[in-house]
Design a protein that fits this description.
Strand content: 15-25%
Number of helices: 13
Oligomer: single chain
Helix content: 25-40%
Radius of gyration: 21 Å
CATH superfamily of the largest domain: FAD/NAD(P)-binding domain
Bound molecules: flavin-adenine dinucleotide
CATH topology of the largest domain: FAD/NAD(P)-binding domain
């Protein structure tokens, strides 16, 4: 095989592409993993780090109109809407609305839970191969509720999680204080997923998975996915090392995939929910051992290697519009009443873009009309945790092996 000829080209080295390249390489394929930046420097860098088998629960639109309009008008920091985007989002939002009924939430769990069940084991397996197990913590993750009423509203979700085998423990304020003694006693109730884990450095874990591409004789190469073409001998892309080609290509470009696929005549229903983060030091000797989200405001605090990371909910905006971190500003004082946050540790908030399908499940499929082209994306709020097992499914589909789960429910055809 010539040095520019590979078995598979993987476009995009976020968690989804890096894991796909790793899983293919560990199965013996020679992979060119191509990105215009180093691995794990976009969305997969800045998230909250959750790796949780419960990642099949969709982030739905509120179905009661009062809450919906309150969120749309920015009355709570869960959502921030750039109103100018509404005309572009209407089709996607109406599908999202239809996918937010209790019946469709049950359907979403059935569609995605088989894949999500492997999310922790697949991440751990890749991290072990890469010598990066220290980047994953087995502490579980927490969800806090300031008001008992909000906790009660989540009863159906808890039943659904348990029906799909997720261990959850319901904590009162005192039990939460035993787990996290430095938090203020503002939470009436909390949920603990003890079997979940999280990464203290999501970007570094992505880089570690990407590094496994050399195992099959492949390489990470800088290049621009926009140069992708299809010729008689398969797919070709221009890179810093000249053109590389392969009979198969996996598009894993996260929030940038839609434009490339459109050029090849494939439409994927993906919208962007932007999110922000800021790192903080903790006061004195205070500690936080595991991530905690707050239901009433929608932010997360995750203890990362670089400080405690506060991440925000969904911002419906053009992917490339200038930052408008109003949710971060609104959440910071609320988070300070929960945790002993001290100084901001970076000059500007980080901004990233979640690539979201309207039914909150990823699309992992061959692309119609484009032999040898595959797409893995649209993971929304859960693409970091689902990345490693997505990579496994991609590797099995591309290599023609028996897949670990039935891929049909995750196919593009479900959108008609
Ligand atoms: C605030 C926030 C918190 C989150 N928290 C969690 C969480 O706790 N757990 C969880 O599971 N998920 C979480 N997510 C979601 C998760 O981060 C994403 O779903 C996931 O990172 C998407 O990965 P990806 O590989 O598809 O995309 P990306 O990580 O964005 O990777 C896409 C890659 O494509 C490359 N690229 C783009 N264009 C080109 C081009 N023309 N040529 C070459 N390369 C190109 C980019 O450089 C990038 O490396 C969160 C997201 C946000 C924003």
């Amino acid at each position: 095989m010539s040095s520019s000829r590979f078995d598979v080209i993987v476009l995009g080295a976020g968690m989804v592409g890096a894991s796909s390249a790793a899983q293919l390489s560990l199965r013996g394929a020679r992979v060119a993993l191509v990105d215009r930046r180093d691995p794990g420097e976009e969305t997969s860098f800045g998230n909250s780090g959750f790796i949780d088998a419960a990642a099949f629960m969709p982030h739905v639109m509120p179905r009661d109109l009062k809450t919906l309009f309150a969120r749309a008008r920015g009355k709570t920091p869960h959502v921030h809407l750039h109103v100018a985007m509404l005309p572009y989002l209407l089709g996607w939002l109406s599908r999202y609305w239809r996918e937010s009924t209790p019946e469709r939430v049950v359907a979403a769990a059935e569609r995605l839970s088989p894949l999500a069940a492997h999310s922790v084991t697949e991440h751990r397996a890749l991290a072990k191969e890469g010598g990066a197990l220290d980047l994953i913590r087995d502490t579980g993750v927490l969800r806090g509720y300031r008001r008992r009423a909000t906790f009660e509203e989540g009863a159906a979700d808890r039943d659904l999680l348990r029906r799909h085998g997720i261990e959850i423990r319901e904590l009162d304020g005192a039990q939460l204080a035993e787990l996290e003694p430095c938090l203020s006693p503002v939470m009436e109730r909390a949920l603990w997923h003890p079997k979940a884990c999280f990464s203290v450095n999501p970007g570094a874990l992505t880089k570690s998975h990407a590094g496994l591409v050399t195992r099959g004789g492949g390489a990470f190469i800088r290049g621009d996915a926009a140069t992708l073409t299809r010729g008689a001998d398969g797919w070709k892309v221009d890179t810093a090392q000249g053109p590389v080609s392969a009979p198969q290509v996996v598009v894993a470009l996260g929030p940038w995939a839609k434009e490339l696929l459109a050029r090849f005549g494939v439409r994927v229903p993906i919208a962007i929910k932007r999110g922000y983060h800021m790192h903080f030091s903790l006061q004195g000797n205070a500690t936080l051992s595991r991530p905690i989200s707050e239901s009433e405001t929608g932010y997360v605090l995750s203890p990362m290697a670089m400080g405690v990371r506060l991440t925000t909910g969904a911002e419906f905006a053009d992917r490339d519009a200038p930052p408008t971190p109003v949710q971060l500003e609104a959440c910071e004082p609320v988070a300070r009443r929960l945790a002993p946050l001290d100084k901001r540790l970076q000059p500007q908030p980080w901004l990233g873009a979640r690539p979201c399908s309207p039914d909150s499940s990823p699309i992992i499929d061959a692309m119609p009309g484009n032999p040898g082209m595959w797409f893995a994306g649209g993971h929304g709020h859960w693409g970091f945790g689902l990345g490693a097992v997505t990579g496994r499914l991609v590797a099995e589909l591309v290599g023609g092996a028996t897949p670990c789960v039935d891929p049909k429910p995750l196919g593009l055809a479900r959108f008609g």
